[in-house]
Amino acid sequence: MEFLQxxxxxxxxxxxxxxxxxxxxxxxxxxxxxxxxxxAVWFWSRAMTDFIFIIFLPLRFTSIFxxxxxxxxxxxxxxxxxxxxxxxxLLTALSIDRYILVTCPxxxxxxxxxxxxxxxxxxxxxLSAGFSLRYGDLWESVLSPANIRMNFQLDEGRVKxxxxxxxxxxxLIPFALILIPTIYIILAAKLRRKRLIQSTKPLKILLGLIxxxxxxxxxxxxxxxxxxxxxxxxxxxxxxxxxxxxxTYFSSCLNPIFYLTMEEEFLRYQQHTLSPQTTDxxxxxxxx
Length: 288
Description:
With 288 residues, this protein is mainly α. It has 13 helices and no strands.
């Protein structure tokens, strides 16, 4: 178990050292160097959730090596849960936003404003916080090693309900809602039926974010279900749960890599808005 803790410490340290500067740069760039567009607000919000998640990583170190800090365990698990739900909700909203951008260009030109997007983001963050706080005392205990779980007196019904809710609301339903508009956009781009799809770069970014979300969070949910089963050795479950937890942190490092590919688009938008020859910015907004 000591080897497992050291391995978790090393891998999480790599995720922390990579994730903090990457997400910090995205936040600074979108806040200071990019025009206030709806797309910029979407990517700023996802970078903010990743930054909050990764900045609390040292607290998880503390909760692992100092076992009697129950407040640290609960706070760390609540932040993890908040990141899981908000990440799923925001990616779903981003996919639907791209779908509306393609299918309803007139509506988006008149109503798709940064204020509207920011309001939606605030609502999704509140909803994520509600789901996270409702079962905040259970998230950590479910995926904790066996020697820690023995200190928790868990209600089996509440544990099963929490795992089902986090899987359905935080993964399966959002993932299905993400795929539907994305498949439509892919087909529209492939068939070139939509005049508005002038650049495939945003589509490539979306296709990078979706597998990252799926691959980094699916093991977390799988081992959540396995932990409440008595048919698997606890030591194997502990190892698997540890790596599943590390993967969730690496998702916060991979997401900024895709955001950085938007930098050229943001700079091009800024150059056009500052150019006196540019009179129609709506095309650039649609090309985001």
